[in-house]
Structure formats: structure tokens, C-alpha cells
Amino acid sequence: MDSFLAPLLILIAAAAISAVLCIALRPLLTRYALARPNARSSHSIPTPQGGGIAVLAGAFLALGFSLLFGPGLLLSSLPAGAQNDLLLVGAAAILLAIVGAWDDIRPLPASLRLVLQAACVGLVIVYAAPGLRLFPDLMPLALERAVALLAGVWFVNLVNFMDGIDWITIAGIVPLTGALALAGQAGALDLGSGWLAAALCGGLIGFAPFNKPRARLFLGDVGSLPIGLLTAYLLYRLAGTGAFAAALILPLYHLCDATLTLLRRLARGEKIWEAHRSHLYQQATTNGFSVLGVVTRIAMLNLILIALAALSLRIPGLWGQLACLAVALLLTAALLRSFARPKAVHG
Asked: 121 with 149: CB under 8 angstroms?
């Protein structure tokens, strides 16, 4: 019973702390971190950014309280190794949040930003998941870590790129982290990662009322970058259990939209580090979809992707997992296709 109670209490505490901090910080952020609209913005009025501070603080305070006082409250405790992993990944996320906060206030050169992001991702790969191997029979450790580093840096930026309209990060990351929290209790993921997923899910839930269309508060890079790192770490841990298909299926909409947009921009010779409105979810708002309509469709797709990921865990064998992945890709492609076309108006 206590194994299920701990992540639930972590989620509730993280949500409450995050919501209180959003209220407390908003006047300060309005004064010092106001995002003013421009030609490439999706918002039309100046809006404070930096809500990610509340999300991360809520998540880490709730998680830290559980680690320190959970055993005394008759909750399950984590092994020392799992606690150390959480401390390390938390430290890397805080460092990345500092990079994001700096970039929010005074934009950093793209090259420096990438180096700092790579340093944080590398810290997680080497020290928070030192023995984790995904392809031990296919590539040496050094090459696998290089691939993991590139994938991690891409995922960090991917979440940042996708945080371009109200509630889209809520629609993408809340279902994903909620599913991973349940996976931790079901034994499909280690317990420490399940607790971290519950904490991040709670932090985002507490932030959600302030980011609903029309948003009164944005995450900012201070939030989207470390949320990308934490989510990538959780998916990396899931893939390390052998659930590689599930780890691909869960974030599939965000992966496909961001990656397709990147490839299209590269093909057009655009500077990919500059702000733009080329993502398919952004095109959807131009094509007649409301912001709420876009994020609702993404959230519904993500619920289906969770079911397919869970099914892939229960189907043994490569072909069963590939079938789940293929269905997930078809459904994701269908949604992307609908976003790329003008919305039909029925009279």
C-alpha cells in the first residue's frame, strides 16, 4: 500500500507547492521576465515567463521531503544508489535551469548554449546512469554514450521548441510522466524514476491553471530545458529495462513534430537556432484550429500512445513491439497531417 501512497503524496505535494509558487512569483516575473510578443510569437499580449521555477521547485521539494522524511512517515524508502541518482539528475536539472534563466533574461549565443546543455546531459549519462546500456551488442560504450549525448541534447531542445503555445507542454509531458509514475509502481521502471516522474507530473499540474489558454504565465527556458532533461532521463531509464519501443512511443508526437520541423528547416537552409513558427502545431493555429483544440487533440493522442506503450510491454517479441510502434506512428502522422491542412468548416 505504501509503495502506491508515496508517489501519490509526492504528486499532490509537488502540485500544491508549484501552484503556491506560481502565485507568489508571478508579480516578480511580470516585472523582470516579461515575454513581449513579436512576429514569431504565438501570444499577442506581454506575458511573464519563468513559471518553470515553480514547477521544478515543487517537484524537487516534494521529492526531497519524501526522501528525508518518508521512512519516518511509514512510506517506502529508496535504496542509497537510487537516491544518489536522483540527487545527481536533480543537480544537472538545476544547472540547466540556471542556463535557461540566463537565456530568458539575456539570450546566450547558440554555441555556448549547446555546450552547456551537453555538459548537463553528459553529467546525467556518466554519473546518474553509469551502468545503463541500451545496445551492448551493437556498439562500444564510448559510441553508445556519444549517441545518448546527442539524443539527450536533442530532447532537451525538443521540449523547448515544442513549448510554443499554451498548455502544449502540459498536454505532452503530464500524461507521459503520469504513465511513468505508474510504471514505477508496477515494476516496469525503477522506483526512484517512478518517484521523479510523479514529482514532475505534480509540478506541471500545479502550473497548469496559470498556463491554460490564454496563459497568465509561461514556463520559459528556465522550465522547458530542465523538464526536457528530466523527461529524457526517465525515458532513458525505461529504455534501459528493454522497453525501447515504449520509450519511443510515449513522446512520439513531440518527437515527430520537432524532428520533422528541424529537417524541413534544414532543407530550406534556414538558421535552425532562430525563433520561428514552422512547427505543425503552430501551423494548426494558423489553419483554423483553436489553441485549446490543438492541445486537446495532442493530449488525446498521448493517452492512446500510453495504451500502445503499455501494450508493447505486455507483448513479448520484437514483432509485437514493432506493431505497436507502427500503429503509434500512423496515428501520430494522421494528427500531424490534419494540423498541416486548413480546418474544414462545416456549415
From this structure: yes
> Is 49:220 a contact under the CB 8 Å cutoff?
yes
The CA-CA-CA angle for residues 10, 203, 178, to 5°, reads 70
Residue type, 168: I
Helix (H), strand (E), coil (C) string for the chain: CHHHHHHHHHHHHHHHHHHHHHHHHHHHHHHHCEECCCCCCCCCCCEEECCHHHHHHHHHHHHHHHHHHCHHHCCCCCCHHHHHHHHHHHHHHHHHHHHHHHHHHCCCCHHHHHHHHHHHHHHHHHHHCCCCCCCCCCCCHHHHHHHHHHHHHHHHHHHHHHCCCCCHHHHHHHHHHHHHHHHHHHCCCCHHHHHHHHHHHHHHHHHHHHHCCCCCCECCHHHHHHHHHHHHHHHHHHHHCCCHHHHHHCCHHHHHHHHHHHHHHHHCCCCCCCCCCCCHHHHHHHCCCCHHHHHHHHHHHHHHHHHHHHHHHHCCCHHHHHHHHHHHHHHHHHHHHHHHCCCCCCC
The Cα 66–Cα 61 span in angstroms is: 9
Task: Give the model's pLDDT for residue 347.
Answer: 36
**80-137 per-position pLDDT tens digit:** 889 999 999 999 999 999 999 998 888 889 899 999 999 999 999 999 888 899 999 9
Q: Where does the pLDDT of residue 205 fall: very low under 50, low under 70, confident under 90, or very high at 90 and above? A: very high
Rounded to whole angstroms, the Cα distance separating 234 from 198 reads: 11
Q: What pTM was computed for the model?
A: 0.94
Tens of pLDDT, residues 49-85: 999 999 999 999 999 998 887 665 545 678 888 999 9
